[in-house]
Amino acid sequence: MEFSVQPTESPCLRMLPELTPETAPFWSAGAQGRLLIARCNACGHWIHPPMPVCARCLSRDIMPAPVSGRGTVHSFTINHQAFLPGVDVPFAIAIVELPEQEALRLTTNIVDCPPEAVHIGMEVTVRFLPQGDIYLPLFAPVQAAET
Description:
The chain has one domain (24-146). Helices cover 7% and strands 35% of the residues. The protein has two helices and eight strands. The two termini are 17 Å apart.
């Protein structure tokens, strides 16, 4: 499944992750509009953040695999403090649970809606914010993504 890539004209105001062999697929697959999560080929367990060994079965047969890109807001907070100049506040920081596996969660931002509209249980879908070779997975309410 492919999702939108949202271009940005502003400089990156986020600390960007270091790309490693384990994390590069997660951070770069957004260029093709795909959200990839590490998955154990031995037992099928999804692993996030990506690790070289499966915590469930200890297999090293780990490969990135596409997920639906849909999720549900599990928890969130609204940040009102501009820790860097140029950061627009308030903004929502959320833990989004993906449907592929119980407790498969990502920490992200909720975009394309007012922060006060974010709520636990909100259905969201991935959007990507390109920052050089890194594509940050952000999530928007399903209704906003379908319009």
